[in-house]
UniProtKB/TrEMBL annotation, chain A:
Compositionally skewed regions (Basic and acidic residues) per UniProt: 159-180, 217-248
Protein source organism: Rickenella mellea
Biased composition (Gly residues): 289-321
Protein name: Ribosome biogenesis regulatory protein
Subcellular location: Nucleus
Protein family membership: Belongs to the RRS1 family.
Top-rank taxon: Eukaryota
Keywords for this protein: Nucleus, Ribosome biogenesis
Biased composition (Pro residues): 85-103
Upper taxonomic lineage: Eukaryota, Fungi, Dikarya, Basidiomycota, Agaricomycotina
Compositionally biased region (Polar residues): 205-214
GO biological process: ribosome biogenesis
From TrEMBL, chain B:
Residue ranges, annotated region (Disordered): 264-341
Full protein name: Ribosome production factor 2 homolog
Basic and acidic residues: compositionally biased ranges: 290-307
GO terms for biological process, alphabetical: maturation of LSU-rRNA from tricistronic rRNA transcript (SSU-rRNA, 5.8S rRNA, LSU-rRNA); ribosomal large subunit assembly
Keywords: Nucleus
Compartments where found: Nucleus, Nucleolus
InterPro entries: Brix, Rpf2
Length: 321, 341
């Protein structure tokens, strides 16, 4: 059976959807664009501009639409969506890439020590009430001591000791400490050294002191507040006795000649080092304020009675409780 | 220490967070600025370009003494104020009548600029045809080989593509495709062909000399999808307007350092890579059930060494003249010996 005739008649009903060009069209489905790299014909352009433009546009759009209709689809509530691949033509960004958040002091410490972050639930189980309550916030577990109707007080407590107020003050102090740490973290993230920040505070204080109508003349003075002074320029005398000039020059030469960095600069360098551990503080805590030498003697010296004495102290403290 | 603006309430905090840099960016907002003098043509052209760009467009209705090529600082100020990264500045002077300057910014600084003179403008109202719905994503069509070769036209293509379709989307409703913006050029002049091919050193000069460069024709058409007997429909176009004939004028290419920073891409996430973005993992894909399927590649089989059925008639004869054959046979025997033992 010859069906070519039927096929031909069927095909003639519809116009062709094929696009034939010398240079194949560059279709970028991801950015919904098509580029026709064939040179524009001079004749068609001169004879009928609009017609020619529309024909080239139609061919390009036909190629793009054909590519779009062959994409995999995904059905959504609004109808089928054609899933687009990422665009091939790269366009510049409008803003730089987002920077990662600088780690807080705790995060740096935890990373150095290998402490894993554990996520706490917002709700905790209350044995007394037999229900889940907030860890903090409205009727929070952290306010338990303040809200209980009876509180144990030591026999030797002050007469005006208010256990509810004490508990509340303790909680508020924790909040304040956390807020202070947040501010410090923000400051650290913004950059700048400690001395820079100090200098800025001094400057702000100085300018705020003279920012009243009387330029600070009739302001209330605090105890021990120093008088505000401007910076006085100081110059060395133009003529100097030979002795002192010689001294200065020799001092300069010896500074150049000296080997290694000065104590001052070494100290500065140590301060700037990127250690998350504050060694001095760690030694102070470990030796209970006695210093590194005492700690070394205690551990390495093997002075038996001394160690025993330490233990005895601990047990005593345990007894007090 | 830098002073940081701290939001005073939740609403302003949300607004500040929305302006922060994001990994996947929003659509660029365009600001349409009128210069000290704009004629009727420019006013209408900007109005209609804005109607194509809506809703990501802001119009400055008052006149502004702004000269982008001499001093781009007001644009940079507006970019920060309006959270916009595209500008269209209309300015008509005696020396450069009806000029539209397209400006693109990166990080609040001007990235590149291109001035186009409007030679002819036909408004949307003059075509009595259906119009597209505002906010629908247009298709883009570029026609000329210069969009791939000539630096000026590469910039124009990048600018226009950024202007109308910068947002990366991962899916589109095919019935929502309503219009196409077609950008084509006049025939390439023979001087341009020769200059760019023969003397590459002169290409900079030729790009500065805008008189030789062909005109740009921007046309907007609405689509009609007709059935074609197959799954893919046949496309017919109808002019919608606006249509613009533009000629290239001054430009400022992007600073290479800035361009490099602007083209930096975010590191792709693991799930995106599995989906097929970025570096693709070979021979792995996910089937419809969501199971990972691997294809194992076996090396090409050497059919010459294939052991077929052994038959007496196919055996190589033991007596064959020539010393080399004998050596071969000895070699074979040697190799066979360990197997036999």
């Amino acid at each position: 059976m010859d069906v070519s005739g039927i096929l031909a008649s069927q095909a003639s009903k519809y116009k062709s959807i094929a696009v034939e060009k010398d240079v194949p069209l560059e279709v970028d489905v991801g950015s919904l664009s098509a580029t026709d790299l064939n040179p524009i014909e001079e004749e068609g352009y001169k004879i009928d501009l609009e017609e020619g433009l529309q024909n080239t546009a139609r061919d390009g759009v036909q190629a793009l639409i054909s590519a779009l209709f062959q994409l995999p689809t995904q059905s959504t509530a609004d109808g089928p969506l054609a899933m687009l691949p990422p665009p091939k033509t790269l366009l510049p960004r409008a803003k730089p890439l987002p920077k990662p958040k600088p780690p807080t002091k705790w995060e740096r410490f935890a990373a150095a020590k290998g402490i894993q972050k554990t996520k706490k639930d917002k709700k905790v189980w209350d044995e007394v009430r037999q229900e889940w309550v907030n860890r903090w916030g409205m009727r929070g577990k952290n306010k338990e001591k303040e809200e209980q109707w009876i509180t144990e007080v030591r026999a030797n407590a002050d007469i005006d000791h208010d256990p509810v107020k004490a508990a509340r003050d303790e909680r508020k102090a924790r909040v304040a400490k956390n807020e202070k740490q947040q501010v410090q973290n923000l400051g650290r993230a913004a950059g700048g050294t400690r001395s820079d920040r100090k200098q800025e505070i001094v400057k702000t204080l100085a300018s705020s002191r003279i920012s009243t109508a009387s330029m600070g003349k009739f302001d209330k003075k605090l105890d021990g507040e120093k008088k505000l002074r401007g910076v006085k320029r100081k110059f060395d005398p133009t003529e100097e006795p030979g002795e002192s000039e010689k001294k200065k020059s020799l001092a300069l030469i010896s500074k150049i000649d000296r080997e290694g960095p000065s104590k001052q600069s070494r100290h500065n360098h140590a301060g700037k080092s990127d250690d998350v551990l504050n060694v001095r503080k760690a030694v102070r805590i470990a030796s209970k304020g006695k210093g590194g030498v005492a700690l070394g003697r205690e551990l390495g010296g093997g002075n038996r009675p001394n160690v025993r004495g330490g233990r005895g102290g601990n047990s005593k403290r345990g007894g007090k409780r | 220490m830098l002073r940081t603006v701290k939001p005073r309430n939740a609403r302003s905090k949300r607004a500040l967070v929305a302006r922060e840099p994001k990994e996947v960016e929003d659509t660029r907002t365009a600001v349409f600025v009128k210069g000290t003098h704009t004629g009727e043509i420019l006013n209408n052209a900007m109005k209609e370009l804005m109607s194509l760009k809506r809703p990501n467009a802001i119009a400055f209705s008052k006149k502004n003494a702004v000269r982008p090529f001499e001093d781009p600082s007001p644009l940079e100020f507006w970019a920060g104020k309006n959270d916009a990264s595209l500008f269209v500045v209309g300015q008509s002077t005696k020396k450069r009548p009806d000029g539209l300057t397209f400006v693109r910014t990166f990080d609040g600084k001007v990235l590149d600029m291109c001035e186009l003179g409007v030679d002819k403008f036909v408004s949307m109202a003059e075509f009595k045809t259906p119009k597209s719905t505002p906010g629908h994503r247009p298709l883009m069509h570029f026609a000329s080989e210069l969009f791939d070769t000539h630096p000026r036209f590469i910039q124009v293509k990048s600018l226009l593509l950024d202007f109308f379709g910068s947002e990366v989307i991962d899916g589109i409703h095919l019935a929502g495709i309503e219009h196409v913006i077609s950008v084509s050029l006049a025939p390439t002049p023979s001087t341009l062909n020769n200059a760019t091919q023969a003397i590459p050193g002169l290409s900079d000069e030729s790009s500065d000399d805008t008189k030789n460069l062909p005109k740009i024709h921007i046309r907007t058409y609405t689509l009609r999808l007709l059935s074609s007997g197959t799954r893919v429909p046949r496309v017919e176009l109808a002019p919608m307007g606006p249509s613009l004939d533009l000629s290239l004028r001054r430009h400022r290419p992007p600073d290479p350092e800035m361009w490099k920073a602007a083209m930096r891409r975010p590191k792709l996430k693991k799930q995106d890579i599995e989906k097929g973005l970025g570096k693709k993992k070979k021979n792995l894909d996910t089937d419809e059930m969501g199971d990972l399927r691997g294809r194992v590649h076996v090396g090409k089989q050497d059919l010459d060494k294939l052991q077929t059925r052994k038959m007496k008639g196919l055996k190589r004869g033991p007596v064959e003249s020539g010393s080399s054959d004998e050596e071969d046979e000895e070699g074979q025997k040697k190799s066979k010996r360990p197997k036999a033992s």
